[in-house]
Amino acid sequence: MTMPDQAAVLIDPDEHRSGTGTARFVLQKVLEAIISVVLVVVLFFFLFRMLPGDPVAAMTRDRVTSPQQIAELREKMGVDKPVFVQFGQYFWNLLHGDLGESRLLNNGRPVADMIGERLWPTILLVGSATVLAVIIGLWLGIRAAWRRDSFFDRAQTGIALTLWSVPQFWLGLMLLVVTDGLFPSRGMHSPDAAPDVLSQTIDVLHHLVLPCVTLLAVFYAQYMLIMRSSLLGEMNADYLTTARAKGLRDDLVRRRHAVPNALLPTTTLVFMQFGAVVAGAVTVEAVFSWPGLGQLTYDALHGPDLPVLQGVFTVLASAVVLMNLLAELLYRVLDPRVRTS
Amino acid sequence: MGWFLVHFQRRIGRFGRVGAVVAAATLAAIPLAVPAQAQQGKVLRVALTTGIDHLNPFTAVLAASTQVGRFAYEFLTVPDAAKAEASPALAESWTPSPDKLTWTFKIRSGVKWSDGQPVTAKDAAFTFNRMLTDENARTANGNYVANFETVTAPDDTTLVIKTKAVQVNMNLLDVPIVPQHIWEGIKDLKDAKTDDLSVVGVSDGPYKITEYKQNEYVKLAANKDYWRGAPKVDELQLLQFKDTEAAVNALKQGEVDVINRLNPNQFAALQGQQGITTNAAPGRRYDELSINFGVTDNANNPIGDGNPVLKDINVRKAITQAVDTQALVDKVLKGLGQVGGGVVPPVYAEYHWDPSDTEKVKFDLAAANATLDQAGYKKGPDGVRTAPGGAKLELRLTGHANRSYDQGVAQYVSGWLKDIGITVKQDLVSDDELSDRTAVGKYDLAIGGYGTNPDPDYALSLHTCAARPSPDGKGGSTDTFFCDPQYDDLYKKQLTETDDAKRAGYVKQAQARLYSQFPTIVLDYQNALEAYRSDKFSGFTTQPQPKGAILEQTGYWGVYGATPAGTEAAADSGSGNTVLWIVIGAVVVVVLVGGGIAFSRRGKSAEDRE
């Protein structure tokens, strides 16, 4: 939503004309981000109100409820009020960190609490998979581009494309079958682990292996492919010829001159992907019963538990906006052309 | 520009060295950590494939949660293992007054809560009175007390319940009895604290909850003082799986010992596997094909958009004649189910009804065609029949898009109906969309089903006039919209008849009446498909016997009866491999980190040279 394409960042006409300082740039970007988040909240609110299905009917399905109880529920949930009054209430609560209450999963539990306890497992899973994917993806991408059209390049690109297109849940299940019980197939903790910190840590790491590898296998491909293509884009540039003409060794030219420039689009991608990656963890968390946000979303969708869904999506969308903001600010730090113009 | 990469590489180098230290520490720590992990008593691990909402027995609604409640808390009575009939539990005996309005329960003495306090009739009275006075306490089992007038405990071993009207399920109140001394101090039953061990950890059932990690697992320890005798398994672990395929895999690899809710394909794949025994038990559900016969709300106004031709009982009869329920059981359920009859499944043999040979509408496409011919629906040149008014016989068929069962049924039914000149447009939708549509009669044919209880009242009540929704579409619990004075009369008679045999007679007559009017076709009763590690455990008690379910039961018998096959066999064979793999993993980490260091060195030397 706020992410302009790369060209717009590099040659932003406003930047050229005004030539203003970093403070104004940061302020402007932060303001844009805030507006985006507000728009997202508004959009989600009305989008979720448009979904078919009466929330009270969903709650009381298969249960014996009197008309009086139903009326009380409608009043308690505020669905008897005009939609704009509901929105005002919702927005006011949101400003106070109140995302409402779950209606189905854990009837009456604050959504913020539910999201809070699921956040850390997802950050651990997605974070570790992303870090590894970035490292492995960039490394392979650089190698592949530098040795373009070699067997290594073609093999790597082929493997990456294959893994990228494999359904995550299938890959996860295959890993479960192939590893034949060497790693736990569910959850984040084993009930048998000793209570001391070290055993608990090892236990969590042991549980992390399969879901993390599954995500990694799918994630690294795009970093590799982007790094490869942006490095290929740099390879015929004049400055590299100059560098070579200076007599610098080939790997030095690559590491000191070509790669830093090619890293720019990749940096943006890493940040942009973070939000999308959390959503992408839904299927992997379901396969491995990992108690994270993805699983919460999966459960909430099954209900459907609208306050929980709305809360999760608001948090995810805000994370994407925040990451984009960071990417834009970092871009300014990384690319002197943006900074000094 | 090069500054960035150099910086980057220095960072990697630093991280690399830190990483190597961490990896080495991890390696060194493994021998310390593993013995703690490997300790396995006689632990029975059950795969849960449905969620747990609460442990608080007043608010726990989901199937897995109520099952935890059954393991932890004793009930006044429990359905016995043999026939799922009321049998003594906390109450040794119970007697109704001559007018059937007052029930006196004799409470067992000598039973103790897990904190040592005695269990008395006062605890039971407290539990029911809390449900009568606190709306939140009625969340899970409120329907059992809706008709209660008063509940008192004149002494420690006597509980007296007075009801407003005759209530037939008084000998099977499915309500866990909680300790008064723990719960009376809790004002708000919706409080998250009511799921804490300090509250739910005090109980009197065969097992006692010892650890709860939300969304992950529940651990229960055997209650050594359980009045029936201590369970033979020391610990029960209920492990949550989101994905049944992953759970099946865990069973194969010995990570869990019992699993249920398998689909026919998973069940077939587990059959004949070494060390695994499968159990196809008669289920508690029925599947049905609802026919929109011109449905109405509870003020008798027509609602929905059903095809008017279905108001003709001849068309509904022809559809019923054209559905081969045996083929559906054989092909769609792969033989793992029983052909449908009445709405009470055969697992409750006392109340189950099957049409007699004369009542039965047999699968016969020629007869179905004849029925439609006689009723005046002529076949056009395109093979599609038209109603006397000129409308074509085109029906919409809806069901769950995400269930392979519904997909299979939709295919077969469409084919058969085509053979009798009825075109079917399949329209399988999301669960929510389906329940929205069927709640207001927006369907012609709908695939659905219900789970039933040992008491037939619930299954029958779904088809009474009162179960229809109000004119604004609210409050309905029916899926058939059936409204028939004759049926309602039979329903009321069974509700107040306390002579078991007579009541069963009414229950069967009601099902026969429903069957004869074709508002719905009961297609089949799916088996509950379960599997367990017979190389590690035996003695799972099924309900009912001999061929009932282990986990899918209204009792704790399955798990309570489990016996370890031998202490050695029960030990975790995977732990040795686990250690091996942790070591291999650590070596890989070290190699990777080593590579990182080498990489950074090269960067450094390049910097030096430049």
From TrEMBL, chain A:
ABC transmembrane type-1 domain boundaries: 119-331
CDD domains documented for this protein: TM_PBP2
Membrane-topology annotation of the record: Multi-pass membrane protein
GO biological process per UniProt: transmembrane transport
Subcellular location field: Cell membrane
Ranges annotated as spanning the membrane: 30-51, 119-140, 161-184, 204-226, 262-288, 308-331
Pfam families: BPD_transp_1, BPD_transp_1_N
UniProt protein name: ABC transporter permease
Species this chain originates from: Amycolatopsis mongoliensis
UniProtKB/TrEMBL annotation, chain B:
Transmembrane recorded as keyword: yes
Gene Ontology cellular component terms for the protein in this record: ATP-binding cassette (ABC) transporter complex; cell envelope; periplasmic space
Organism domain of life: Bacteria
GO molecular function terms attached to this record: peptide transmembrane transporter activity
Any one GO biological process: peptide transport
SUPFAM superfamilies tied to this protein: Periplasmic binding protein-like II
Pfam family, any one: SBP_bac_5
Residue stretches spanning the membrane: 579-599
Cellular compartment(s): Cell envelope
Entry keyword annotation includes Translocase: no
Residue span, Solute-binding protein family domain: 86-462
UniProt keyword terms in alphabetical order: Membrane, Signal, Transmembrane, Transmembrane helix, Transport
InterPro entries tied to this protein: Peptide/Ni-bd, SBP_5, SBP_5_dom
CDD domains to which the protein is assigned, alphabetical: PBP2_NikA_DppA_OppA_like
Family statement drawn from the similarity comment of this UniProt entry: Belongs to the bacterial solute-binding protein 5 family.
Protein name per the record: ABC transporter substrate-binding protein
Protein source organism: Amycolatopsis mongoliensis
